[in-house]
Amino acid sequence: MTLVKIAYTSNTGNTEGISEHLEDAFEALDLEVVREEADDIDGDFFNDADIAIVATFTDGDGEIPFTFEDFYEEVQEEELEGKLYGVVGSGDSELYADFFCHAAFSFEKALAKTGATKAAETLTIENEAEDEDIERINDFAKEIVAKLG
Predict the structure, then answer these.
(1) What's the confidence (pLDDT) of residue 94?
(2) Positions of the chain with pLDDT lower than 70, given as ranges
(3) What pLDDT, on a 0 to 100 scale, did the predictor assign at position 93?
(4) Taking a C-beta distance cutoff of 8 angstroms, is the pair 15, 54 a contact?
(5) 76 near 110, Cβ under 8 Å?
(6) Which ranges form a coiled coil (predicted)?
(7) What three-state secondary structure class fits 45?
(8) 50 with 148: CB under 8 angstroms?
């Protein structure tokens, strides 16, 4: 069975909720899903996955959240060739317009360094996922699964 692993970190609960919607979306497509918080994983978390998903918020002036820093550094050293990846970012464009979802785009670049294949454009969500965002999350999951071949 195809294994999807979702790594996430959350401060206000918005990204945790998004990661739950991602889990539901992939499970609805009959895939096995493991979802773990950043504090509980190491850089090799995606090594046995077919699909690697990161869900993150952006800290301060565009930084990777503190709880994701070690994972962010470590995952770039992994060889994930043959795996698909996607990234989802949550943020507040009103308060952080210059850095909206910047950490998500940083993770996109980090995962590209592993040799994994980007399977969907990075999805950005304003704060908490609402109905139209959940539809976008479902479409994001379908787009990635379609690339499995």
Answers:
(1) 83
(2) none
(3) 85
(4) no
(5) yes
(6) none
(7) coil
(8) yes
What predicted TM-score, i.e. pTM, was given to this entire model? 0.96
- The H-or-E segment that residue 69 falls in is helix 69-75
State the Cα–Cα distance between residues 19 and 5, nearest whole angstrom.
10
DSSP per residue over 92-137, as a string? -TTT-GGGTTHHHHHHHHHHHTTTPEE-SPPEEEESS--HHHHHHH
Residue type, 136: R
Q: Report the alpha-carbon distance of residue 83 to residue 48 in Å, rounded.
A: 9
Asked if 31 and 2 count as a contact pair (C-beta separation under 8 A), the reply is yes
| Total Cβ atoms within 10 A of residue 70 | 15
pLDDT computed for residue 96 by the predictor? 79
